[in-house]
Amino acid sequence: xxxxxxxxxxxxxxxxxxxxxxxxxxxxxxxxxxxxxxxxxxxxxxxxxxxxxxxxxxxxxxxxxxxxxxxxxxxxxxxxxxxxxxxxxxxxxxxxxxxxx
Length: 101
Known about the structure:
By secondary structure, this protein is mostly beta strands. The chain is 0% helix and 40% strand. It contains no helices and nine strands. The strands form three sheets. The chain has a four-stranded antiparallel β-sheet with strand order 3-9-5-6, with no helix packed on it. A three-stranded antiparallel β-sheet has the order 4-8-7, with no helix packed on it. A hairpin with a 2-residue loop joins strand 5 and strand 6.
């Protein structure tokens, strides 16, 4: 039988304040040997005011705010390993950033 476990990720905004944690269940495979995890979309609840997100060395495929696709170069830009929003998020906004390595 496959083993599963819950993984929780915690992110910080530009001011260093913790954002709400994101949890998901990972299936470790039949022998518990599935050690590689790739997260392709994270949707945390934003408290408001965030305008940038450190992403690491990834390629941004799409950005959605409250389920609405955002046009790159207008609503957001990516410089190096950081995604910058044209407008600050509001309390309760949901941002989905789909990335690939």
